[in-house]
Structures are given as C-alpha cells and as structure tokens.
Design the sequence.
C-alpha cells in the first residue's frame, strides 16, 4: 500500500488477506501511517485485539487516528456504513482513509452473511467518496466461503504482499448470491399472527414474548419499535395482510415480518435520514435498534427477520 | 377506547400564552391522520407556542413523528415555536435515534417547555 499515490477523488476498496499478527500490524499500520503522513483523516474500526496491534504499531502517530471497536460499532453490520459516512462527511472535501474489519470468526453465520452484504454495499454507498478503504480478512480463522465472498465484494485485493484487481468482483454492482440464500426455516414452536391494521396487537404480542424471553424493558421496547415500523410498512405499501412470527431460544429472540411489499433500495435504512426528513426513518430505526436484521425482498414479497440477543455480549469479540 | 386520544387546551395565565396538546396512548400509522388534523387545526390558529405533552404516550412510530415534524415546519414558517415535553423513554429514544430532538426542542416537563 505504501506505493499507492494519494488519491484525489478516488474510491478504492481493498480486501487485505492476512495470516499473521506481524503482517497485519505492518500492512494496516503502514496504510494508516501513510495517510497520517499526508495529513489525511484516518479511521480504523477493527476487533479489540487488532486495535491493540495497531495502536502498538503506530505509537505516538496513532494519536491523530480515530479508532473504534468494530465488535461494538459494527455488531449489527448495518451500523457501519452510516458510521463511516459520518466520518467522511465530517472531513468532506478531503481524502480519507478507513480500515474496516467487519468479519471475525466468532460471528454467527447470519452475521457473516450480513457482514458480506455490508462489504458489497460499501461499493454503492461510497462510490463517489474520496476514500481509501482497507478491509482486513483473517485467512487463518475465517471460513473459505467468507473469504471467497470477500473476493466478490472488493474490487481490489492485497494478498501475499501483492495488490491487484479481484477477478471475482462483479461489475456492474452485485450483492453476492450467498446473501440472498433463503433464510433458515424457523423452529417448530413459533407464534404466528396475521395482522391487517391492528398494529397495537402486534406490539403487545412482541412485548409479551420479548419479556418472556428475558429481554430488558429497554431492549423489549426497541424490538417493539422495530417490528411496528416494519408492520407499518405493510399498511403503507401493500393492500394485504402481513404475518408476524416470533420465536426464541436461550440466545436470542427473533421476530419475522412477511408481507407482499417490495423493498428495492439495497441501502434502505443504512443512510441516516436528515432530521427533518418526512420519510426514510422506518427502516433506519429498525436497523438502529436491532442486533441483526436479515431482509429478503423480491417481487413476491418481503421478509424482515429481526434478531435481539437475550444477554447482549459485552464488547470483546 | 381509542388507541390515541388528544386533548387541547389554550393556556393564558399571566405572561404565559401557549397551546397545549396532550397525547395519550399509542400514535402510529393507523391514527396519524387524526393526529395531523388536530395539529393542523391548532397550527392554523397561529399560536406563538405549541407544546405537545407526550407524558401519556406509550408508543410513537415514524408516521406520527412525521406528522409532528410537519407541524414543526408549519409553526416555524409562521414564526412560532413547537416544543415537545415529557416524553417517556421509548418515545424519547426514538426522538434521539431519528435526531428529531435536534430539530424540535424536547423538554423534560411542560413547565420547562413554557419557560424555554
């Protein structure tokens, strides 16, 4: 990366495949240090152990860098694009560097799929940004399927010390097919409710099940808001009923809403609406309050699956 | 019982002149048209200050928020001020997440809203 010229109005999205801590520290800290040397704003969001590596490698230089724990700011991968967009907006008119590591081995399969979707959407969301984006991938511990998708979502790859175009990157823009696989079937013991305009009943059901599952009052209210916003879309955008399905296990409660609507904007809910905007808040709120959101939509209908952990893990993935 | 009830009072005591709209229940896409009618009627009377008391509101969705933001715009256009007061935590959190609290002043109590 050291030889990469300082870009002007250039968007580069590079997947970096690493094997060792030493490789990680040298390459990622080098990428950040090159930016700092040019006076560029730099931001790195990576898991905590990697943050330590970067801080140690950068030493005093690191004081001018912005760091974040990706296991917090990117727990729901849909939170990452608005966070990075806030960073680029804050430095509008300047070339910026961002390091984002959204995939780590302890993530669930559903989370990794959403991390892959996030990486694909970075190409849409920041197509006009003046930014160098470097995304490290732990090749020793991540599944091959995740690594293969990283080849699909990054136009450029840095692997074994060489940077080049990724032959698997799809042009024009495409979300990898793995992100569109059918959602896993719910377990057998689910609660199902068909609603038309009785959203108050929908909210009451979600609240009851969220409390029974063990969510705190505050997180139960979050889930109620999310489900209500999705169900409100059924009323706004379709002429038919919607179906709410709820289930939970020891780890999480899941609420799924299905209706005949179609959501076509792949970035829906990932752009912070202007505060006085008179639309666009629904899916924004859904993503903001949930731990994970899975969305499948085509001409036959839309399914939104909202996950809330019952005992949210303390940071430290 | 209605999901959402609204009551309107015009307060004129001493130096205080304001319209107070109290919302109670749940405000969502199914009743936001009724809410809009109530707010539009009050905005049309051109009060200097319109305070919406949210203390009785258990739930508010983005449709209801948009009605309030529309009323806020209209109040601003005619040189008045709209303020929100006494939001319970779920509603207050929703106002923070949408950053609506940066557009519309939000006060802990109606008393503070009248002083603000």
Sequence:
């Amino acid at each position: 990366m050291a030889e990469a010229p300082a870009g002007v109005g250039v968007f580069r999205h590079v997947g970096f495949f690493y094997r060792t801590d030493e490789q990680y520290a040298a390459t990622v800290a080098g990428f950040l240090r090159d930016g700092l040397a040019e006076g560029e704003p730099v931001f790195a969001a990576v898991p905590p152990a990697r943050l330590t590596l970067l801080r140690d490698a950068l030493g005093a230089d690191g004081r001018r860098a912005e760091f974040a724990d990706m296991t917090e700011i990117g727990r729901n991968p849909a939170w990452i694009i608005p966070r990075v967009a806030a960073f680029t907006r804050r430095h509008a008119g300047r070339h910026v560097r961002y390091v984002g590591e959204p995939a780590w081995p302890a993530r669930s399969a559903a989370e990794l799929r959403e991390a892959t979707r996030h990486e694909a959407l970075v190409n849409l969301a920041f197509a006009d940004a003046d930014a160098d984006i470097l995304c490290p991938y732990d090749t020793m511990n991540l599944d091959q399927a995740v690594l293969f998708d990283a080849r699909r979502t990054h136009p450029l790859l840095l692997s074994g010390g060489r940077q080049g175009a990724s032959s698997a990157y799809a042009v024009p823009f495409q979300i990898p097919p793995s992100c569109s696989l059918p959602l896993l079937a719910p377990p057998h013991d689910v609660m199902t409710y068909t609603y038309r305009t009785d959203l108050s009943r929908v909210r009451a059901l979600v609240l009851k099940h969220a409390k029974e599952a063990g969510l705190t009052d505050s997180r139960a209210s979050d889930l109620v808001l999310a489900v209500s916003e999705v169900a409100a879309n059924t009323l706004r955008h379709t002429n038919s009923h919607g179906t709410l399905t709820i289930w939970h296990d020891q780890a999480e409660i899941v609420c799924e809403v299905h209706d005949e609507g179609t959501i076509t904007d792949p970035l829906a809910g990932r752009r912070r609406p202007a505060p006085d905007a008179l639309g666009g808040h629904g899916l924004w709120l859904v993503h903001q309050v949930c731990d994970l959101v899975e969305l499948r939509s085509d001409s036959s209908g839309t399914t939104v699956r909202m996950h809330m952990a019952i005992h949210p893990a303390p940071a430290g993935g | 019982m209605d999901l959402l009830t609204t009551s309107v009072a015009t307060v004129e005591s001493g130096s205080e002149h304001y319209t107070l709209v109290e919302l109670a229940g749940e405000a969502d896409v199914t009743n936001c048209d009724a809410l809009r009618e109530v707010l539009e009627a009050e905005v049309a009377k051109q009060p200097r200050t319109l305070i919406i008391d949210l203390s009785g509101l258990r739930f508010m969705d983005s449709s209801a928020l948009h009605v309030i933001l529309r009323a806020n715009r209209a109040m601003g256009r005619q040189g008045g001020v709209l303020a929100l007061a006494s939001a319970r935590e779920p509603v207050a959190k929703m106002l923070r997440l949408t950053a609506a609290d940066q557009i519309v002043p939000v006060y802990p109590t109606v008393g503070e809203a009248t002083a603000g």
User: Anything to note?
Assistant: Strands of chain B lie at 4-13, 16-27, 49-60, 81-85, 106-107. Chain B touches chain A at residues 3, 26, 28-30, 59, 61-63, 65-66, 69-70, 72-73, 89-90, 93-94, 97-100, 102-103 (CB under 8 Å). The first strand of chain B starts at residue 4 and ends at 13. The longest helix of chain B spans residues 62-77.
